[in-house]
Amino acid sequence: MKKSFRSLFNALKTLANQFDEKANDTKYKTLQALHKTPLPPHKEWPAYQHLLLFLSAHPQNSAFTELLNKEKERLSKQVKKAGNAAKAQLQNSGLPHTTTLSSYSHDLLVWLAENREIKMTYDSSSEEEIELNHVLQFTLPDMEKLLTAAGNTQEDLLQELKVRPDQFLPFLLDQFSRLNHEPFMKDYFWNKLGIYVELSSEQSSFSKLYNQLSFDSTYYHTDLLRSFDHIELLNAELPYYMNLSTEQQDELIAVMRNTLLFLERETDPTTFIDRRSLRFYQLERGISVAIYTMTPNRHLPMESYAGYTLFKNGYPAAYGGGWVHGKKTLFGINIFEQFRGGESGYMFIQLLRVYRQAFGVDYFEVEPYQYGLDNPEGIESGAFWFYYRYGFRPLDKQLNKIAEDESQKIKSKKGYRTPAKTLVRFTESNIAMNLGTAVPEGVLALRERITSYIAGNYNSNRSEAVLESLAWFRDKANFIRLCNRYEEAVLKDIALVARTLNVQNPAKLELLKEMIQAKPADMYTFQELLVEFMEL
Hints:
Elements: H1 5-15, H2 21-35, H3 45-57, H4 62-81, H5 84-89, E1 100-102, H6 106-113, E2 118-124, H7 132-136, H8 154-160, H9 168-177, H10 183-193, E3 196-201, H11 230-235, H12 246-261, H13 268-271, E4 279-282, E5 287-292, E6 304-312, E7 315-325, E8 328-335, H14 344-359, E9 363-366, H15 376-380, H16 383-389, E10 393-394, H17 397-412, H18 420-426, E11 431-434, H19 443-458, H20 462-477, H21 485-501, H22 506-521, H23 523-535
Parallel strand pairs: 8-9
Antiparallel strand pairs: 1-3, 2-3, 4-5, 5-6, 6-7, 7-8, 9-11, 10-11
Helix pairs in contact: 1-2, 2-4, 3-4, 19-21, 20-21, 21-22, 22-23
């Protein structure tokens, strides 16, 4: 009796993370049978897409990959033939030939507008928090600015400006580009307007199914690595990063950005990426990691927001970032749903390995959302124990003791599960893994010291504090060179730090001078200098 698509799908899903000889043979035959079975109703296509992506990222051999590619093509063609009603229900699924509707940053939409294969359509906006009038008074040509003072509604204003409905989105993108010199003001206004845009493409490549790097290496699985020495892996020497061509950089950035927009998300380092900071490491077992930071006009003071995307055989499998300050980083990881059930622990430690060696970090801290705060899935999955397994411990001493007791119960009582209320308690504290000998000071503590210094010595007058600190630092460090506008911003931060900490050591003052030039130009050099400064 011929099996149904549903039964074959369930069988393949059960076998997806098994790689012994029998399982491999059964997987191949099951996929062959699926390929010959009519596809199910459209509501089941997103789940099938996720299964095909997991299998594509964990292939057993080239023949299996070839069959997967045929099945992906069949699914893509079926979606393309689907009626409008079905496609409407598949919106935001990331499937080929479907639409994605969400709110994106101005910079990301400007980048998307350069791609002629992607159609962008304005959907809606909100004037509940701010009116378009209030924004355009900063952007319109002077001869037209008076139109914004007439109290026109958005519709009336656009009529006065002779902007047709089909021109509205390009008009907005153009007008907001006039605020590029004030990126945070631009972001504020754009976010307040709440612009929603629908994205679509005739090309199958614009989808989760085909969003893959063409130049990454392929690893064929004979198993899944669940048990390994994580300290040994953290200490394994990191290979030199790949020297990417301009075309490879373009492809890498496109894949990373598209990955997030299909999830209706963005991260600042991915959207505002500084190409000079982009490094791509090819690691073991088909894992590659790209790390990068933002352009200088969006840098954070005295720390580096270093984003990452992790790839599995060229498919984006995880994203997140680290807020790096000296030997300490606040770290976040998000593994895409379709890649859970694979080598999550191994991927996590590979990420920590990259950050540890690229930035000299040995103290990793994780915030409670990652393991359950306002995150029911994190509680249900017991995510806290994922981190605990690799050496993360609550910073709160009482919670750390409770975790130790719970860990012993898990080891000694077969089938024991930590109560949900206890897992919720763990979210009252950050957790950390310390690979060094001391707890490094974080940027938050430094910021608090600066605030206290300004309050105590300048009656909270920030302008006076900055001016006096600049004069003090220039004199102490003999800093006389002219700075560009990005270096000037760093100089103010450095001067406040130096004055607050009363830095007198000539070697430390020299390091601070070097950091002013390095911060806008090279995240890695700045981090090296900061570590050296903090260790002197």
